[in-house]
Amino acid sequence: MPGPGPNGATAAVTRSTLRQQIADALRDEVLAGRLVPGQAFTVKQIAEQYGVSATPVREALVDLSAQGLLDCDQHRGFKVRHFTAADYRAMVESRSLVLDGVIRHAERRGHTGTQAVAMVAVRRRADEAARAARCGDLDIHIGYDLRFWHELGSLLSNPYISDFLHRLRMQAWVFAVPHLRADAERRRWLWSGHEELVDAMTLGDLTAARAVIEAHHDRALAWLDHLGHPDTSPRAQAPAGPPPPRPDHGERRER
């Protein structure tokens, strides 16, 4: 049987690209807190919002469900997943255990250093993430923080572990964003140790790297304790549908 012709191939690529664009846009909305936990919507609503067909929208929403950001109800559509304080604590503890294992594995195999060239891009993410944290710029910080950890994880571990940790970090941000956005003093809690971690990794000092990561996780748990009982605190009322599309200013937030 002959394969698809040029037009069919182009259509497939276009649909795949559109699927990714929609998934990226909705992920940004969730991580920014504009799509709030519990907010429900249908494939039809999203398709109408973006002026596209239902197929790439359905595929994008399934992708986000697989990442743990959305819940899918066969009869009611999709909604942003609501994570509890217990969920967040488990995420941080899981990250801590896995990263500690990754570093110990690297030590046992004698992989105590990383290539300087490979660390250049990671260093740029580290600088931007740390700067945004010190300024309290939550949106910029989240984008660079996610990119920093994903790229660093790709250097330190295999793709399965790296992707697992990336999903955990995205889910943790979904829980944290509404609370941090409501906190005028969030600069106290946004972690800015990215540059210190890069320095330790570049020098091959995995003991120092482990200490930086442990301090990061301790800070996350201290922030959670600071919230008191976040799952019973007032939350924004989830609107009936997704917000209107925002204009594209030509520069997407880093992921």
Automatic annotation (TrEMBL):
Keywords: DNA-binding, Transcription, Transcription regulation. Residues 16-83 form the HTH gntR-type domain. InterPro entries: GntR_C, TF_FadR/GntR_C, Tscrpt_reg_HTH_GntR, WH-like_DNA-bd_sf, WH_DNA-bd_sf. Pfam families: FCD, GntR. Transmembrane segments: none annotated. Residues 228-255 are annotated as: Disordered. One of its GO terms (molecular function) is DNA-binding transcription factor activity. The keyword Transcription applies. Residues 246-255 have a biased composition (Basic and acidic residues). This is GntR-family transcriptional regulator. It comes from Streptomyces clavuligerus.
